Amino acid sequence: MTADPELRLRQICLLARDLEWTSAVLTTAFDAPVVFRDPRMAAGGYLTNTHIRLGDSFLETVCPTDLAWKDSSTQTRLLERNGDCGYMAIVQVPDVSTASESMAIQGSRRGIVAGDWNVCSGSPGAGLAGVESGRYVLGERLPKNPDTVSGVNVQFHPKDFGTLAEIQENWPGHGVFPRNKGAYFPAGNTWQNEVDTRPHGVVTTGFAAVEIAPRDNDPADVCQRWMNGLGAGCSIDPEQPTTLRLSGGQTMRFVEPESDEKTGVVGVDLWAAPGTAKKFDSVVICGVTWTLVVCPAE
Q: Are 123 and 160 in contact (CB under 8 A)?
C-alpha cells in the first residue's frame, strides 16, 4: 500500500528568542521569502511569527513576546531549557476527521492539545478578508463549500509524538507542485500568487525528512504511534523501525537524543534545488541541523 499523495510533511516550526534575526538568517540561507506573519497570533499577545515559503512548503518561526516571558509560558520554558530549537512538525492529511481521532488515541491518549477551523469566502490566493474561525471538535469533517477556502489544524502532545505534532487539512485540495496552489491557512492565503513566477529559490524545493528525538520514549514506539495515527498508507520498513515513510519520498526519522539531551525536532533534510550545485551539505540554524539531499527523481 502506497501513501496517499496528500500525506506530506508540509511545515516545520521553530522556536527562537529573536524573530527578526532568525528569520533573516533563514531567508538568506535558503533563498526563500517571508510570505506571512499571522496577525491573529500577534493579537493573542504571547507569540509572533513568520512563515517562509520553501517551494510549496513552509518554515515557521515562533517567538515569545515580553508578556510571554513575564508570565513564563510553555514556549519561554522550552527556550530556557533548549535554547533556540525545533518546535513542531506539521503533516498534511487527506481526511482530518479520521486522522484526528486516530492520533488522539495514541500513547497516553491525551487527545487534542489545540485545534481550530477556518473558513473564508473566496479562492486560493485571494487573501483572508472576512475569515471566520472556531475551536475544532474531534472527528469533525473539514467544511468544503463552493466559493470558499477552508482549513483545520489539530495539535497533539509532544510526550506522545516526540515533538508538538500537528495535522492539517485544507480545501480546495492540492495538485502536484508547482501547480500546488491550493489553500494552506497557516501561511495565509496570498502566497500562491508567487508560485508561478518563482516556484522555489536556488537552494531547496522543500522538505525531504524531519528527524525527531523523543524525550523518555523509545523512538520505534513513537514512530509506530505516528503511523497508527496518520494512517493514509504511510508505512514502516521492518528493517528500519524508526523511519516512517510518507508520500513523495518524504520520511520522518526518530532517534535517541544526543549528549546535549536536546529533544523534539533536531534535524531536517531539504530537497536540493534542481539544476544548480548544492549550496551546502549541512548547516545548523536555530538549533536544528539542516541537510541538503538530492531528490531521487533527479
A: no
CB atoms within 10 A of CB 125: 17
In whole angstroms, what is the distance from residue 35 CA to residue 29 CA?
16
Question: What stretches of the chain show up as alpha helix (H) in DSSP?
Answer: 19-30, 39-43, 66-71, 74-82, 96-104, 158-161, 219-230
Burial 213-222 (b: 16+ CB within 10 A, else e): bbeebebebb
Query: How far is it, in rounded angstroms, from Cα 177 to Cα 199?
Result: 8
* Residues 73/64, Cβ–Cβ less than 8 Å: yes
- All structural domains of the chain: 8-293 (3.10.180.10)
Render 133-170 in DSSP notation, one character per residue. EEE--TTPPPP--TTEEEEEEEEE-HHHHSSEEEEEEE
Placement of cell 539544476 in the chain: 275
Residues 104-133 have pLDDT tens digits of 999 999 999 999 999 999 999 999 999 999
Q: pTM to 2 decimals? A: 0.96
Long-range contacts, stretch 39-42, CB < 8 angstroms, 24+ apart = 40/133
Predicted confidence (pLDDT) per residue in 155-177, tens digit: 999 999 999 999 999 999 876 55
